[in-house]
## 1
Amino acid sequence: MDINILLILQEFRNGAGSCLVSFMTKMSFIGEMNTVLIIMALIYWCISKEFGAYLLMGWSGSRVVNGLLKVTACVYRPWIRDARIVPDSKALAEATGYSFPSGHSMNGAALYGGGAIRKELGKTLRITLGIIVVLIAFSRNFLGVHTPQDILVGMFSGLLVMWLTFKLLEWVKAHPEKDILVMCAGIGAAVSVAVFAAVKSYPVDYDEAGKILVDGAKMANDTYKGVGWCMGFLLGWVLEKRYIGFSTDVPMLTRITRLATGLISYYAVHLILAPLVKSGISGAAGTIVSCFIEMFYAVFVFPLCIKHFEHPTSITSD
């Protein structure tokens, strides 16, 4: 039934014209991993450190959960399961890893759904964010890269992780000395997922020409990314809380300066430093370390630069 739904959507997509396909491509784009990460980092640096930390923690945790579910279920992508499925070419380029559950749906649930479940936001904004979550998830069906169960489990898993993250941070706020315990438990869980992904066996199937359909080791790459991001967040979060304490209660000009310098410097790390590190460290370790560096820069190193270079009167603890 899931394939039949995709075939119906595919027929509609082929006859719908470029405008609708373009819209769904844009919705898919705002659910991509790096898009979501940079938006959350900008919130963390420029708008609200508390809210940004909540989003970054929940998202990095959801990436580990997504990676664990993917390498456990090992569900092939729709076009591998049925040759009649022809995904949109642009969406196909971003469709990495196993199919179940949808990473884009979990990303959308983390960033936009994470905002929607926070009652301090206005009702209209929360409804809008909820609609965005649904549109991101549906775009993955419409573009032919995920089945309905992929996106449904992705959305609900992502929202569950964000709700648990909200409760966890409330507990940490009441017991601030427990942040190291949270860090150690989270890093231990992430490392365990990485070890599981590295040692488990993966299904091996071949096409009619005798070529392997899916390389399980490559499919686990997204799992290692999540592990690196999670570890980078947790260590950076504790260090920032204990030794930096930067504030987002600053003038608008300072926020704009942070946005510009943060974007430029983060993309230097993402496009230059992280690939260099990954090229020098082979296999899963290279992926984990490069993603660790990206997240650690966003959560700790750039706030450290803020503390050092901004005027002292604009730096107070949140």
## 2
Amino acid sequence: MNEALSTNAQVEWSDAKSLLTLTGPGNANLRSLEKHLGIEVGSRGNVLHLGGEPAKVALAERFFVQMGELAQEGVKLEGHDHLRALHALSQDEGLHLRDIYGEVVLLNARGRPIKARGLAQKSYVHAMRTHDLTFGIGPAGTGKTYLAMALGVTALLSKTVRRIILTRPAVEAGERLGFLPGDLEEKVNPYLRPLYDALDDMMDADKADGLLKRGQIEVAPLAFMRGRTLNDCFVILDEAQNATSEQMRMFLTRLGYQSRCVVTGDVTQVDLPSGQRSGLAEARTLLRGIEGISFCEFTQVDVVRHPLVQRIVEAYEVRDAAAEEQRERKRAEAEARRLANEAVREAARELVARAHGSEG
């Protein structure tokens, strides 16, 4: 490390026990932060010692000071949330982590708080509260559907809306539902199961079952939305990348009075038959900038599942980028060949014309 370009700082925590929670087993969390920032981080007692480039040390100091304040307020982050929090601070110098992690959206069925776990999720929660229609677009594991359902349950329990409607396309079933065994519920249940699973995590099973039976929570395939007007509802369309253009238009025009709608999906994971354009991708182009509609974009940085999921998403994105670069190179090469062939043909035509002219 260049001593002339380095600086040192110390952060003292009043609570040594919470500092141990922050540093992690064997200081694993500190090592991760060291690697991410490229600085040196050590701990002695209840004091953290930082050393490295001034800007990076300053960022780390802000992070540890704010984490200490959160700990005093009883707010604790999971180890894999630390890098996301650090990233958020690097994006906004005026941000305090309390702005992201201090607010509870809902207590789940086990009494654990559901809250935003990063700047993108915080913006997403705010958008759902302030817009009639919100699009959450990004890779799997970024909490798009889970947070939308938490907001929906909160709205239902506070009587802000009368019903929650959860829907998603049953793409693989297509027009073949009639050939599947069982009644209609049994036919579509596999496609709706993830929504039921998230609902089970939100509230007590008996309460959820009662709300489902009374129709205050409805889970149905997207095709069942046709011809309806959805008033006084919190509506969530999940896996929207698998809605066709026609289905998306149909769904978005169902929205009635006193209703909120959230559309979630990942435009890189389209399962529609070849040749069919994703309704989500089209809506993102057509509707961006319309008043009352918010688009929230997530990236691999915002993945809140197992840390390995973020690396998997990243690997596939690198592959997709390389494939697109190769396709673009092939298109450029094909266009160059076309232009070269056209030039050859044009030169041949000129030679023939000159030959005929000289004969005359």
## 3
Amino acid sequence: MSAPLLRVRDLCVTFPARRGRPPVRALDHVSFDIAPGQTLGLVGESGSGKTTAGRAILQLQPPGSGSVQLLGRELVGMRAAPLRAMRRHMQLVQQNPYSSLHPRMTVARILAEPLEVHRSVPRGQIAERVAELMTLVGMDPAVVQRYPHEFSGGQRQRIVIARALAVNPDFVVCDEPVSALDVRTQAQIVELLHRLQEKLGLSYLFIAHDLAIVRAVAHRVAVMYGGRIVELGDAAQVYRSPAHPYTRNLLDSVPLPDPARQRARLAEAADEPDFRAPRVCGEDHAATGTPAWHEIAPGHGVSCHFWPQGEASASFFEKKEAKKRHP
């Protein structure tokens, strides 16, 4: 196997105390890898730490501790000049296309700015590169003299993607890139990202709360809760056999068109154990309440108080599956 493009180990971010409130641990020893040309979907509810993880990886939010290696180079603690040079290898697609584009700059200026900052093409070739970027994201280069307010939400997001690709990055953080768009436009942007990945060999960290979108784009899925990754595995494994109660709750929260099936699923969810309860998985975690990491299948791991070894391995979930087979 090739070396990972991105390697994150024990990444921690703590926000300081404010107005008498205690400090907030936004990221708690987050670790994962992303291979070249691979997409890791990072899912979880609002406030789980997904966006903080993306910003900390890009060094937009300084981590308190941990390691982030991109292309074999350590980013945490890197000096300003080399970090600025590394930024051409990592870019960000923001969530809201309505606020992420400067309203007083034309599309031509928006796309030319990163080219000028990183000096990635000669000045005389900037206009040609801007036209190439517009074509790459499926837009007419003739509209580059227009302003952002003259475009629809989907067109603006295409411009945001074009700006991220201007300097030929290897790694792109997509922070909820389709959440502000209608369903039809979401599908178009997802297809565009997939096509660009195949054409340019990009690696994505795809942050989202919509599990259906993540299932369509991700090779691997990491589930975040309370600043920690509680489950990580191949997308097919996680969706087919979710091991953590929180992952199951996320999957159960996807609405079903059949009201009867929805009511039955909610009734089953009511019987699920409370995954927030600090049940101990081992003596070494009794003091901190932090569950151990269990490798339950090749490439599929879970950090859960309800996944103990030994006698307790006949878990609630195994009994639940047996009940489905023999009602």
